[in-house]
Specification:
The protein contains nine helices and seven strands, in the order H-E-E-H-H-E-E-H-H-E-H-H-E-E-H-H. The protein has helices spanning 2-8, 18-28, 30-51, 96-163, 169-204, 229-239, 241-262, 307-375, 381-415; strands spanning 9-10, 13-16, 56-69, 77-94, 211-214, 267-278, 292-301. The chain is α+β, with helices and mostly antiparallel strands. The protein has a four-stranded antiparallel β-sheet. A three-stranded mixed β-sheet has the order 1-2-5.
Length: 418
């Protein structure tokens, strides 16, 4: 990836397509590293759940000495040594808490994976909106450069006409003012480009002194993916990570409720243990079987004396379920509101592109005719400046409309979990 990054840098410019930008973000953004940790943590939760259902093994070894003194002869002392070994194993055969832990492990893994996907989806959305914003900033820079060139050409033409006696000093002053303002607008556009480029590189997680340059703005708006809002909303309900997280949270709470009721059932486990103790290690003359003890049995637990805690646990589980359902409903309402706004804004932005394109075409034709009339002396300089301002505004509106429809499409993709 570093080789690709170096290959994309041309002198002091980093030329990037949208796909290359997303790829760089996947490679370098801290968000992706954090999302991967969520996935790793989710897999660990499955193992944690199963750990309660797997056999439990324990073992120990010890060596001790004792020093005793005779009450008859206090000068006599006797030292003895003792070896001890023990090993035990237990296996849960039935326990509602263990079953719940296994189920919670799988639900926890799904939740972690959904949280991971939500973070990466947010990152892709930020990269897309940043890229489209950078395209617009470049477009506005080109508009400012064009406006500056036109202002300089008009100033030169006005000076020529003044020397020929066809232009007044006031008109020259107006042309100079317009040229100065165009220069200021260009400087602001260059500063905005630098700021947008640095913000975009931060979103990608890269550090480079180069100026990011995106591809030119695509003048073809994206095609609608759904024929109606109902089709779109159904797709959102099936794929949106936030809504899926809320749904999984409800399932986790419902599982907790079942486990709380299950604690009223008996628990059953099997255990076996082996113990050895002697003053010396086992040998041919002192076999292990001479000093060992083996025990095994089934352990049945009856929650008769723990009814109070069980009832309180059921009460808390019921509240947790209701809270999870309320949170899910709240997420649905908020998501539907966001989806409706995104759908309407996308439809509106598509129509605005068409109007902005037509408006730009009319302003270009108007400017062409105004220039011709100005050269023929049939149009004042003030009128020409007004037409030029209208053309610049039309270009800005068109670029903004193109960027807006792409941003709205990016939001729709984000809500769809893309």
């Amino acid at each position: 990836m570093l080789t690709l990054l170096l290959a994309l840098i041309s002198v002091d410019t980093l030329n990037l397509t949208l796909d290359q930008s997303i790829r760089l973000a996947w490679e370098h953004s801290p968000t992706v590293a954090d999302a991967r940790l969520d996935s790793v943590d989710g897999n660990a939760k499955v193992w944690q759940g199963w750990s309660a259902a797997l056999p439990s093994l324990n073992g120990s070894a010890g060596l001790g000495w004792s020093n005793s003194r005779s009450y008859i002869d206090t000068t006599r002392r006797q030292t003895s040594r003792n070896w001890s070994f023990s090993a035990s194993a237990s296996q849960v055969l039935f326990d509602a808490s263990v079953i719940g832990a296994v189920g919670s492990g799988y639900i926890g893994r799904d939740l972690s994976n959904l949280q991971s996907k939500s973070k990466t989806d947010q990152l892709v959305w930020n990269v897309k909106t940043g890229y489209y914003g950078l395209q617009t900033t470049y477009g506005l820079l080109e508009v400012s450069r064009s406006a500056k060139k036109n202002a300089e050409d008009n100033l030169e033409l006005t000076r020529v006409k003044q020397r020929l006696g066809k232009s007044t000093g006031l008109e020259v002053l107006r042309a100079q003012t317009n040229s100065s303002q165009a220069q200021l607008n260009l400087m602001n556009a260059e500063q905005n480009l630098q700021t947008a480029s640095e913000a975009f590189k931060a979103a990608l997680g890269i550090a480079s002194p180069a100026l990011v340059k995106p591809e030119p703005v695509d003048t073809n708006p994206p095609a609608a993916l759904f024929g109606s809002f109902d089709d779109y909303w159904r797709a959102v309900g099936q794929a949106n990570p936030g809504l899926l997280i809320a749904e999984k949270s409800v399932k986790a709470a419902e599982l907790g409720k079942k486990v709380a009721w299950g604690r009223m059932l008996p628990s059953l486990s099997f255990s076996v243990s082996e113990r050895y103790g002697d003053s010396m290690l086992p040998s041919r003359t002192n076999k292990w079987s001479n000093n060992d003890a083996t025990s095994w049995g089934f352990n049945l637990g009856l929650p008769i004396l723990n009814v109070k805690d069980i009832v309180l646990g059921i009460h808390d589980a019921n509240i947790a379920v209701e809270r999870a359902r309320i949170a899910r409903r709240s997420s649905e309402i908020q998501l539907q509101q966001t989806a409706v706004s995104a759908w309407l804004n996308y439809d509106q932005s598509r129509r605005q592109v068409a109007f902005a394109a037509e408006n730009l075409h009319l302003n270009q034709e108007l400017y062409r005719q105004a220039q011709e009339q100005y050269r023929l002396g049939q149009l004042t300089q003030l009128d020409l400046f007004t037409v030029e301002t209208g053309l610049s505004q039309a270009r800005v509106s068109y670029l903004s409309a193109l960027a807006d429809v792409r941003v709205q499409q990016a939001q729709i993709d984000y809500l769809l979990g893309k």
